[in-house]
Inverse folding.
């Protein structure tokens, strides 16, 4: 179980966002209540002193080999559940993630694709065939 030192602002911020995200994901909260929730969790963590053990664990950074092997011509393998998808965006949205947050969470490069290469190529060919974007 990882240990966090709450004197570190970055770790306190990470814990605050993790706790609030977990709460909002599992409980109904009005949008206007979220800032108060963030403030109360942050102040509670600020009030604690010394290292704190927590079950919140950052996923490990992916090696370049893992990143390369997750991109196949016909699909992208999700680091969330290990399944293959032609388009990752819908899968990420079902887990409350954006492409940017997914890349950050798993230590992926900024140019990591969200669409499988062959799928993208097929869509491009189709769009060109129907003269999409031409006047």
């Amino acid at each position: 179980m990882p240990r966090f030192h709450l004197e570190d602002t970055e770790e306190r911020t990470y814990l605050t966002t993790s706790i609030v995200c977990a709460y909002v994901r599992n409980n109904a909260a009005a949008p206007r209540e979220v800032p108060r929730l963030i403030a109360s969790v942050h102040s509670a963590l600020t009030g604690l002193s010394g290292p704190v053990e927590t079950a919140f664990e950052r996923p490990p950074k992916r090696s370049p080999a893992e990143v390369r092997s997750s991109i196949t011509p016909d699909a992208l393998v999700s680091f969330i559940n290990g399944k293959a998808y032609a388009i990752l965006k819908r899968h990420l949205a079902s887990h409350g993630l954006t492409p940017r947050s997914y890349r950050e969470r798993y230590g992926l490069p900024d140019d990591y694709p969200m669409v499988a290469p062959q799928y993208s190529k097929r869509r491009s060919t189709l769009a060109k065939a129907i003269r999409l974007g031409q006047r």
